[in-house]
Recover the amino acids of this structure.
């Protein structure tokens, strides 16, 4: 990886326009490995990851994502799946309803930062029909697709990121001494 962590955090952006160039399997593997290093409650690791390259399956995922075409256009789509029962086995309802989602979100964020490190683009897609995505992937009913991450080389060299409006520090941060 060519970027340090702070650069990756600053430069991460949602990319929705990809070249058709394939992403090498070794890079995809390293991105997924970064996701799997995420913290999880009780180290339960309640995630599964599906790497999708097959065009017809990407088309089905795009349809499940309410027609977001860039899902289909990306060379690779990583789908991060929660296994709520895995977290529930140790933490009950809080594990299934909250921890499994928090843990998979941490997995997704790690992958998004790794994507930047490899000079790729990606977008965190959370707007999709879970049932349709689960059916497309032939998932058992107890698993929940949580995020789709279309990944590829950006179609155009991204312009430097414009500062996005951020809420004022004093509005979001409380320091208790």
């Amino acid at each position: 990886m060519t970027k340090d962590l702070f650069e990756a955090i600053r430069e991460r952006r949602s990319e929705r326009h990809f070249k058709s160039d394939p992403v090498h399997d070794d890079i995809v593997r390293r991105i997924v490995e970064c996701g799997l290093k995420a913290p999880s409650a009780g180290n339960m690791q309640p995630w599964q990851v599906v790497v999708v390259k097959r065009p017809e399956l990407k088309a089905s995922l795009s349809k499940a994502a309410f027609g977001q075409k860039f899902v289909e256009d990306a060379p690779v789509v990583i789908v991060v799946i929660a296994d709520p029962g895995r977290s529930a086995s140790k933490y009950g309802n809080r594990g299934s309803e909250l921890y499994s989602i928090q843990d998979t979100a941490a997995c997704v964020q790690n992958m998004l930062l790794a994507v930047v490190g490899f000079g790729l683009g990606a977008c965190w897609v959370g707007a999709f029909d879970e049932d349709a995505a689960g059916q497309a992937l032939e998932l058992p009913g107890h698993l929940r697709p949580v995020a789709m991450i279309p990944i590829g080389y950006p179609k155009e060299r991204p312009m430097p990121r414009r500062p996005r409006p951020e809420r004022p520090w004093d509005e979001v941060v409380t320091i208790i001494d």
Summary: The domain at 5-155 is CATH 3.40.109.10 (NADH Oxidase). Residues 81 and 145 are 4 Å apart (CA to CA).
